[in-house]
Amino acid sequence: MAPSAGHLRPGRYLAFFALIVVALYALVFFTGSGKPTPKLGIDLQGGTRVTLTARTPDGGQPTRDSLNQARQIIETRVNGIGVAGTEVVLDGNNVVITVPGAQGDQAKSLGQTAKLGFRKVITSQPNAPVAPPAPGTPATPPASGSPSAPPSSGAPSAPPSATGAPSSTPNGGGGAAGAPAQQPPSTTPSAPASGAPTGDQAKTPIQQAQDIRQNPDLASTDQAKAQAAQQAALASLTCAPNVADPLEGNDISSKPLVACGDKDATKYVLGPEFLPGTEISTAAANYDQQRGQWTVDLTFKAAGSKTWGDFTSANVGTQAAFVLDTNVVSAPTIQGAILGGNTQITGQFTQSDAKDLANVLKYGSLPLSFDSSDATTVSATLGSASLQAGLLAGAIGLIVVFIYCLIYYRLLGILTILSLALSGLLVYATLVLLGRWIGYTLDLAGIAGLIIAIGITADSFVIYFERLKDEIREGRTFRSAVPRGWARARRTILASDGVSFLAAAILYVIAVGDVQGFAFTLGMSTVLDLVVVYMVTHPLVAMVSTSKSAFLSNPRNLGLGAVQQLASERRANRTAVGRTNVKEA
Questions:
Q1: Alpha carbon of 553 to those of 383, 547, 550, 562: distances in Å?
Q2: How far is CA 489 from the centre of its chain?
Q3: pLDDT tens profile 61-102
Q4: Which residues belong to any copy of the Protein export membrane protein SecD/SecF C-terminal domain (predicted)?
């Protein structure tokens, strides 16, 4: 037998709910920033979202460890440039960078691999002018990291020396006094296929490029073999502004390399890497007053300092190339030994170029190379308009529900409106705290989930109230119908909300991007709906059912007048039928 409404003690439930609300808003106002505003996504406040897709030399799936390491390095870069409110999260095999406000341009350079290495220049040749690649050619659009690579200089200067900082001579197309003679473009044309993979179509573009442009024969002591390999590699390399390098961030440091430099004006044949960028201790962008240009000053670690000093001592008169993501940033001629662990990268850098380069070198290279698969920028004006549209849609939905409840349920409808308002307070506080604690951002998809959740919450009230009508239709009073109706309605409410939460959970697990925001808010609101129904709606209805007020106890004011009249008519019919049967007997 269902318990009576008097045994419920609704005051305790309402007091406990009030305590929960007070505790949540105390956390909202007295923790973190103290601002009672949820964290908004870029589609609501404006900003930039860059999605970086990892690529591996063999075309396989990157490991989770390498993705996490890449995310941490990018996050460190973000902190280094001081972009407030930026988020770096993993989304499957993608790294998603979200920058709020008008600082989005800096995010597009954060995914640069920044694999720096120092290589000896074997030879170089001017790059013959080439027409822009036609659509459908193997070349692909540049990755997001490529715009941030600083331009190379046609006349770089040598790194400063601890003993006097000798200046370099211009290398022009790559040659300089004391440097190895340049290889002419080609006197004996050779087909690029001579160094190409032997028909292995299963190889990825990265592997094919490694076979040709990192052929060990490029640095062979056999002049004929080296010349043939160099001609094939140089012929296979296209240096043009809108042509991406498949080896970007994927070159093998222990092998020679053929790369572009000097704003794609020169092709370089380089020896194996003799000093990795991981030996850099610090990097800083500075303005050189004497040269009138921005430079990047480097300080090596102990081992790197010794390696650099030994190399410059043994290779005076030759060129050393600073290679960033397979692009020769600078190739100065060494005029003397550079000791002390300090050096300098020069080039035609703007202030932004120099600072970006120093930032990515300071925090290390990424373990993976990335392509920018998506870059979305939303203006602050459009974000504000989207937020207003979302709020307007929610307000219209609430008003429609309010009007329906008032017309159909009357006083019970007012209880519904009150329950929805309290549910809104609970949801809002939860969104603010989740934004602080786990970085959850509310976006348009999340607002859509909240709007749909209004219907789910109202549906719980409808189930409860319709069950009350069924009990009254069977001849019970409103007071006795409340505990019986609740005992039966709550099973349906639990089943309904359980199905909604399960669907939201599955959607959140299998979905990516904005759809996850929709699923999250839908699932969260479904859980909070149960809290409100159990701790607010049912106790309020129970209080009304036990009230001695003539207004509150009047079934017509509760929207139950028609049902009670139908129950009275049924009782009268049953009484009349019973009397007729008695007379016939």
A1: 49, 7, 5, 15
A2: 42
A3: 888 888 888 888 777 777 665 656 677 888 777 888 877 765
A4: 372-544
